[in-house]
Batch of 2 targets.
Target 1
Amino acid sequence: MTDPVDVIKYCPKCGSSEFYSDDKKSFTCGVCGFNFYVNSAAAVAALILNEKGELLLTRRALNPNKGMLDLPGGFVDPGEKVEDALIREIDEELNLEVTSLRYLVSWPNRYVFSGYTVFTIDLGFVCEVKTFDGIGFHDDISGFEFIAPHKIDNSQICSESIRQIIDFYRRDIGQK
């Protein structure tokens, strides 16, 4: 009951209630003819390792999935490059300076927020940071921890897309 077809009832252009879903990916207004498409929002996730080879994971401070493990990152702002979004998010959340990044993999996700499903495409990057000196937690995270990739409990990961990104990384480096 959170999919756009269940939530969106009025045309955002003229306010008409004659706003119909054609195929669960698009809507058309019967009054003004406005077409609305449900697209994926871009989000970024960082895989950052410390000197022991442990992965930096954060704890979500907010719902959905408050308290669960997540990778640092977040949504890409309109007009922003995904690389710039990743650098910004790591600075905002953890006060860390990204010095290099390498694209790894993407995975689709359904992010339910405020009773509405936002479809996302989560882009995973392997990153290096200048130093962990000054690391802190801010923004929408309540803490962080370092865990060896092979010791991460998948049942504690906040979403299927983040689980898939971490699993892909573990296969990429030869750990399961």
Note: The chain has two domains: 4-37, 41-173.
Target 2
Amino acid sequence: MRVLELLEEIEEIVDTAAGFPLTGKIMVDSQELLEIVREIRAELPDEIQQAQWIKNERERIIAEARTQYEAVIEDAQKQADALVENNDITVKAKLRADELMRVTENTAKQLKIGTYDYLDSILYSFQGKMEHLSSIYFGEMFTSIEKAFDDINSALAANRDELKDMAYRTQMDADDIPAPSAESEEEDQ
């Protein structure tokens, strides 16, 4: 599965990234990580297509069950019409037709219930797999990315504070230099 390979690539980037001494922070190429995330997004439609296939398969099974149900009903009706010719046979035929209808309806219900159970088990399994993938890979990936961004922001803030401190010291040093006196200005002229 291509998504898993891409997630492993992100793990490798994080594992092999250069670290900042004594901070536990690492430096990674954000463009490279973003490109991998884009590739993961491109691969996800395959998983969605599998879910669509399951939905289509469910609809096909239900349609097939409905067709079988209607065929059995039609067959029972034909048998009942043929037996109408004789009154004694007609009574027996009606009883038999009613029995066939009950059997047919029970069979159709059982087929529907079996279909629903089958589809539910497939969807449940797929849902479990998606939750497992999400909890293992996406949680770690987004946590790692979020940590990387937090580390970068912290480093930038520390650098800005250092620059502000240096500017302040430079300003203070400039204020300590005495202003040129009038005599030194005349000597310069």
Note: The helical segments are 2-16, 30-83, 87-176, 182-188.
